[in-house]
Amino acid sequence: WARPAPDPGDEQPFWPKPAVRTGESEMAFLGSFFRSALAGTSAASSEDSDAGPAKPAASKRPIKGRAGAPRGRREPAAPKPRFQSKPTAALVRLHETRDWSDAEIVAGEEERVFPVHAVVVAMASPYLHRALFDDDGELKTKRILLPDADPDALEAALRFCYTDSWGGNATLVLRLRRVARLLEMKALEAELHRSIEEDLSASDAVGVMQAAAEEKDTALMAAAVDAALSDPSEAIKSPSLPFLTAESLAALVSHGEFAAPELDIVLACFQWAARKAGTPTPSAALPPPRPEGSPPEEDDAGDDAAATAAGSAAAAASAAGAGRSLAHRTPALTKEQGEAVRAALEPLIVPHLRFPLLSVQDLAKHVKPWGVLTPSEMVQLLTFGFKTRAQRAKTPTVARFLAERRSGHGRTVLIHLWGAGGASGQDSSCARGGAGGYMCVQYVCPDDEELSIYVGAGGYTDASSGTASFSTQGWPNGGRGGYSWNSGGGGGATYVVSRSLGSKVLVGAGGGGGGTAPRSWACGGGGGGGTKDGKVGSKGDGGNQPTPAGEKGVDGNGDGGPGESSGSGSKGADNNGAGGDSASGTRANGGAGGHASFLPDCDLMTRKDARSEEALTGVVGGRTRKAGRGGRASHAKERGQDGLCIIEDEATGKTYEFKFERDKSKGKGTGKVHVWTVDAE
Fold it and tell me: Which alpha helices (DSSP H) does 229-300 contain, by range?
């Protein structure tokens, strides 16, 4: 048996100079060593036992807000209270092989047997020390019965005795904690507290909250709540949440840092209460799943609110629009059922639901069918929803419900994007370019967020000479149109890059494709710029004489249209940006529109896909805005309009507008990158 090498700088331990030992002599040596350490360790364990439970280490796990970004760190955890910082190779080997074991522990009703080394487990557990050894330090029994101990949890606790690690299985946390208390293993209890705060998922932490409530363990409850707050969006969807006590659920939703989407919080609490009250769930109130990137229903808040205030929940559900399709729709709850759900929520939970933070659409479609709110409360909330953001920011409560955002949310903004339009082709009978698409997302910015904004430039029709030449690119990534007869280039995408997400594209709107000229040997239109999966698109040039097939777009860029010899005289495909058209008298195709994208860190509010050269509209702060028109038919070489980006602060209503600006220090058509930070005034 070889002596482990000490770490440089460490005090030399009291190891005897070893000789090579094998078999029984090795076990005798280990027994001699651990017995010499046992007296001091057990005395220290007794003192720890009198001192009460070990204080859990402070959490150092990053706290996530709605955007999924860290918003703070706690103090580092204290060192683990163990007699030795690293397990020796010999202990690990003994745990794995159980060679030379001299005692056994029998656990559970099934009487599972665990061979152990008495001196090792006694050093970690005062309970086992008393059970195994007499006052003279001699082994007095070789068999201990623990019929109430969970066998799996005991196995993890014994592993901790040898290796200082219990395996990290989240499903064992509560059972293992009971075993740790039974065996008086303060170090294991402290490690479990640390694991709950730092390692346990937010969803599993909700299950720990349930057990902590059953055991009336306030320390465990505090640790579990802290872990759940690390990712509120995950915690609110935990399968354990419907089984929480009212007090536990209230501890979660009342916390100012529980920054899950408010609609998710409200509906989770409603479903919890419906289970308690034994009432059904109105499926019309629950938003069905929608594939990422798919367009939602059109924003029609005024019509929805009017229909809801005037009539039934069925009217509100039917007003949900083409984007929602439920397999069946149960009617709204009856008045008696709604009152039963409200009674289950009173008085601990209802005061902490922040209904004023919900949009008019969400109140109408997802809250009213439950019948939880009174008619007076609904009227006050809907009225509040139609006020300007500046007016809402000055109102702390509505119908006694808090209107203040939870502190974990950070700064919430709406990001409006218009892609740039594609250019029309050459000649007076040219085909039009496509308009850019429109996107609006809601994003909760981390405290240190910095957004880089790329505003797309309209496409060009300016290829000047040579059959292999192309037009100027519609910055930053529009596909180019070709020369001889000139086709229009695609408009650039407008997109936003997030520093906190590793410089990924948070959201992008697609540019429009370019149109063609009405002549034989015309070139294909350039594809519109686009984005995909956090990446910026590229390629998508139109086909010309040397390369007539047209270039396929990459990472969201629209495909370039094939030229005369390879085309079919077709319009480019519509995506988020509209495809460019093909003029009569040519077989060249227009360029396809660019694709839109957004990451799951933001919520899609509105998406509009262009289908012609007409600019799309969006509502910003009560005003209608539009941008990104395509070059018009019969307007030779008309450039597409530039895109636009507007960031709107939800709390104050203030807007920040960004347009395409040429960077004169660089080549023709190159734009400037705008930067916006959370502390922008």
Answer: 232-235, 246-253, 262-277
CA 591, CA 433: separation in Å to the nearest integer? 8
Distance CA 458, CA 632 (A): 12
In sequence order, which residues have a C-beta less than 8 Å from that of residue 455 and are 6 or more positions away? 420, 494, 642, 643, 644, 645, 658, 659, 660, 661, 671, 674
Query: Which DSSP state fits 364?
Result: I
Q: How many C-beta atoms lie closer than 10 Å to residue 299's C-beta?
A: 16
> Which residue, 443, 447, 449, is CA-closest to 600?
443
* Residue 33 burial (CB count, 10 A): 17
393 three-class SS: helix
**DSSP string covering 541-587, please?**
PPP-SSSTT-PPEETTPPPPPP-TTT--S-PPPPSSSPPPP--TT--
Can you read off the two tokens belonging to residue 441?
A: 């997302």
Q: What is the pTM of this model?
A: 0.53
pLDDT at res. 631: 98
Element (H, E) at 188: helix 186-198
In sign, the C-alpha dihedral spanning 121, 127, 132, 137 is positive
What are 470-526's pLDDT values in tens digits?
999 999 999 999 887 899 999 999 999 999 899 999 999 999 999 999 988 899 999
Residues 6+ apart with CB under 8 A from 367: 266, 285, 355, 358, 373
As a whole number of angstroms, the distance between CA 442 and CA 603 comes to 5
| CA nearest neighbour of 358 among 373, 339, 337 | 373
Both tokens assigned to 107: 């656990």
What's the alpha-carbon Rg for the chain, to the nearest Å?
34
Structure tokens at 81: 């209270």
Going from the C-alpha of 289 to that of each of 46, 323, 364, the distances in angstroms are 56, 10, 18
Find out whether 475 and 673 touch, Cβ atoms under 8 Å.
no
